[in-house]
Design brief:
Helix content is 65%, strand content 12%. The protein is built from six helices and three strands, in the order ααβααββαα. Strands 1-3-2 form a three-stranded antiparallel β-sheet. Helix 3 (51-57) packs across helix 4. The longest helix is centred in the last third of the chain and has 22 residues, at 96-117.
Length: 136
Amino acid sequence: LYVIEQQAGFLLRRAHQRSGGIFQALLMDSGLTPMQFTSLVKIHDEGRVSQNLLGRHTHTDPATIMGVVNRLVQRQLIRKTTEPADKRKSTLILTTTGLKLIESLKTAALQVSSETLAPLSMDEQEIFLRLLARLT
């Protein structure tokens, strides 16, 4: 018998909704979406990154990452520069404001994961995260 509530996609969507709700509650004041936050973190991790590579690192299609980047530029959280050797290629770097914002959100970001996984024991959390990584 097919029971929708027992299907992987249904359960993954519900888990994603849970995580998203916790993210919104803890990081709402930042004005960032989860995708914007992820992009800022990846730019921070890389130091400077092309828009194309940022899309690949965040597993985001080119049109979506372009919108994310444009909104972060508008908020002056990142700077977009063109490469002298190839004007079609843009490089993204955090502004001081962007860096300060990411630094101020680290504790809350860790809390999102902690609260999302709270119903699981520590051993279950490790197993769950390892299994999720295998699915991706």
